[in-house]
């Protein structure tokens, strides 16, 4: 089982790096800093990944979650994002050395009619058993959209626009500050990244949350990658890299959940 989980996350990571070149740079930078200051080889630990989808029966949140449930994960939390028309769940493995998983879905029927039509057209040709395939979680798009359709989606939902060009894949990976030895705060990481020219998500402040909600998060802004639309190429936001610091609950254990108000702002890392 452990090998299967490692293999899945390895596939997701390799797929993510193809369209998020800055993540590799950040990863190498932080690992290099850690190793240099600790005087030994240091490896970053992934706190969680996030996946996106639509609440369409054959590809909904539960269909994506089934892959993780089969690997020993269990559902641990539910979240609503009313303004963004999203809902989400997070999953944890009994062995906490495995990353957590945050899966969200767009509530299609809550979107304007023209947006619904584009999404239904995109997803119509996906076979009913596609989501059950081993590689589905990193299979990308199963459709192609025009730049005009992308613009319509983007006007109403950055999330829908992102899905239209990137489809099924990890939307971000997350460095766990709690497993680092040299860095003691997200502010330290953010300062280093900015000095190296990386752009951070400042929506709701560079650091979202904090000790008072038991979780602090920050992230880079998504890379811009050239995408082939039906009739042209265009630069659009791809994926980003997140950083998380978890705090101890009164029980003495680290908080493992997510904070909806912070996650709401983290979603904006893919804004155009």
TrEMBL record:
Its cofactor is Fe(2+). Its EC number is 1.13.11.93. It is an enzyme of class 1 (oxidoreductase). The keyword Glycosyltransferase does not apply. Keywords: Dioxygenase, Iron, Oxidoreductase. InterPro entries: HGLS. One of its GO terms (molecular function) is dioxygenase activity. It holds the Pfam family HGLS. It comes from the Bacteria. SMART domains: DUF1338. Belongs to the 2-oxoadipate dioxygenase/decarboxylase family. This is 2-oxoadipate dioxygenase/decarboxylase.
């Amino acid at each position: 089982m452990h090998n299967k989980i490692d293999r899945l996350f390895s596939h997701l990571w390799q797929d993510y790096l193809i369209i998020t070149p800055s993540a590799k740079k950040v990863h190498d930078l932080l690992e290099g800093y850690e190793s240099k200051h600790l005087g030994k080889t240091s490896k970053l630990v992934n706190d969680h990944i996030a996946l996106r989808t639509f609440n369409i029966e054959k590809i909904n949140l539960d269909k994506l979650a089934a892959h993780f449930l089969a690997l020993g994960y269990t559902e641990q939390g539910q979240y609503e994002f009313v303004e963004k028309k999203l809902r989400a769940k997070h999953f944890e493995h009994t062995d906490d050395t495995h990353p957590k998983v945050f899966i969200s879905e767009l509530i299609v029927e809550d979107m304007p009619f023209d947006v619904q039509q584009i999404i239904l057209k995109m997803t119509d040709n996906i076979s009913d058993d596609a989501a059950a395939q081993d590689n589905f979680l990193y299979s990308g798009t199963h459709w192609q959209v025009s730049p005009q359709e992308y613009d319509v989606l983007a006007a109403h939902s950055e999330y829908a626009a992102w899905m239209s060009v990137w489809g099924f894949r990890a939307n971000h990976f997350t460095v766990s500050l709690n497993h680092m030895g040299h860095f003691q705060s997200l502010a330290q990481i953010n300062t280093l990244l900015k000095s190296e020219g990386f752009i951070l998500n400042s929506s709701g402040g560079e650091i979202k949350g904090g000790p008072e909600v038991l979780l602090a998060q920050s992230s880079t802004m998504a890379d811009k990658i050239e995408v082939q639309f039906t009739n042209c190429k265009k630069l659009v936001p791809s994926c980003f890299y997140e950083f998380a610091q978890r705090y101890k609950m009164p029980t003495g254990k680290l908080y493992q959940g997510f904070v909806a108000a912070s996650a709401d702002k983290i979603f904006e890392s893919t804004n155009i």
